[in-house]
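Notes from hallway chat w/ T.B., transcribed later so I don't forget. T.B. wanted the structure written out for a chain they're using in a teaching module, and asked if we could keep both sequence and structure tokens in one place. Agreed to drop them here.
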Amino acid sequence: MIRSAKENDINPIYELICQLENTEFDKGKFSKTFTQNRKDENIYYFVAEENSQVVGFISLIILSPLHHCDIIAEVAELVVADNMQGIGIGKQLLQYAENKAKELMATQIELSSNQKRVAAHRFYKIAGYGNTHFKLCKVL
């Protein structure tokens, strides 16, 4: 089942994001950001639930960049628990986010994926995403 994330989903979402980034984030900073972002009308958090357990997470950001002159959706995070991968949960989360983006009148949906996530790139290509842009990053 896919549903909107609730405040009390913070712990499993924290674990999933740490899994995604292969690191342990500062829990206080994470909690503050999670709570703040849930109040932003342009940020949507959804979870996949199996047997009353959160096993997947996706975030969707709605933007109106000038170079598009339109509404664009961005998937900022998509992660499924290691032990639940390969059974369609990621596909369900992505489809849910795409449907929400369409409902919000977005004309395009974008995402970026770390270069080392080769399996994720295959997943996104199968889902219809093309590698049309370069994303360049600089640590400040």
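Follow-up for T.B.: DSSP finds four helices and five strands in the chain. Might be a good example for the class.
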